[in-house]
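Translate structure to sequence.
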């Protein structure tokens, strides 16, 4: 079953990526936290890869807190995304992404029913910092 209805949330993300020279693939890890409807906690963490600086995929674990009708759960997180660089500056780079996040609950911890599959469209604004070397952009 897939979750029906519309909800909003507010959250944050921490991502660390390695962008090797002479390749079009970067990889790293991510962790995300969100308050769905500003009440229900959700956390995701795992690995991610970005191809040609534009298209990416997150794969990891998800945790969803209980709500009025569903149990706390652990599950699988899958998140294809489109990265959107807004500028070519090397420091404090504003970037963003548009993602489709799919969280599939596998284990429920309480007597309440396991939550349905959650599908979200997520728009993010990020501030990227370069730790070493130079940032490279797909757009030149």
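Result:
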């Amino acid at each position: 079953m897939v979750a029906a209805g519309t909800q909003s949330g507010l959250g944050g993300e921490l991502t660390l990526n390695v962008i090797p020279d002479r390749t079009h693939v970067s990889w790293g890890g991510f962790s995300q936290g969100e308050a769905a409807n500003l009440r229900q906690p959700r956390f995701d963490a795992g690995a991610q890869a970005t191809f040609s600086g534009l298209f990416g995929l997150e794969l990891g674990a998800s945790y969803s807190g209980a709500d009025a009708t569903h149990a706390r759960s652990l599950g699988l997180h899958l998140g294809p995304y489109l990265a959107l660089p807004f500028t070519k500056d090397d420091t404090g780079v504003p970037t963003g992404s548009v993602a489709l996040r799919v969280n599939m609950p596998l284990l429920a911890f309480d007597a309440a029913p396991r939550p349905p599959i959650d599908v979200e469209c997520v728009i993010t604004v990020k501030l990227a910092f370069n730790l070493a070397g130079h940032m490279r952009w797909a757009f030149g």
